Amino acid sequence: MKLGERREHHETIGSTNERARELAEEGAEHGTLVTADEQTAGRGRQGRTWVTPPGVAIAASLILREFDDLLPLRAGLAVADVAGPDALVKWPNDVWLDGRKVAGILAESKASQWAVLGIGVNVAVDVSALPEDAAEVAGSLRRTPDDVEPTLTALLAALEKRLGQGRESVLAALRERDALLGRRVRWQDGEGLGAGIDESGALRVDVNGREITLSAGEVTLSAHL
Prior knowledge:
Number of strands: 13
CATH class of the largest domain: Alpha Beta
Helix content: 10-25%
CATH topology of the largest domain: BirA Bifunctional Protein, domain 2
Number of helices: 5
Strand content: 35-45%
Radius of gyration: 17 Å
Number of domains: 2
Protein name: Biotin--[acetyl-CoA-carboxylase] ligase
Distance between the termini: 39 Å
Largest sheet: 8 strands, mixed
Enzyme class: ligase
Region (Disordered): 1-50
Domain BPL/LPL catalytic: 1-171
Keywords: Ligase
């Protein structure tokens, strides 16, 4: 079944990921899509919220029965494909355009049974209308509300392609769109310079001439892109 061939749409929902998890547990097929015009309790990484104003953004969650450990990065690439040639993937789960965050990704899984891939994209969001903490970093594709559905259609097609792509090709594409390469980054235990993506999809960081890798966790830029 193609991604999104089965779709459950809501005018308003708390979290598309929560609904998709319920459907996954009930046995929903690979590719089942949950979308909403407005999301009131969307979740991001580290327990953060993801604001989805009505009618101007993609709030979508896919149920996948076939996936690998590169899933969040594959999704980031798919969003970047749709966002345009200047869009960058900020490891591990954001997409940036013109130095601002235009999309967030949250992948959750239950062993090898299922994964729920949540994607939020600011298609036509008026950033100035967002809460202050979100407005500081948020950006938009600067399209119109009428472009939300066509952008979702394009995203599903791009994601289908990226999910079927070999690891080496995915990693090569990530390296071309690496938002952190050569930039000073911080994480809970330290600070260093982004030094690329390794063969496992982990972030390489140069810490005073010594290279380490980060396989998970929150990474922030010392200054905006």
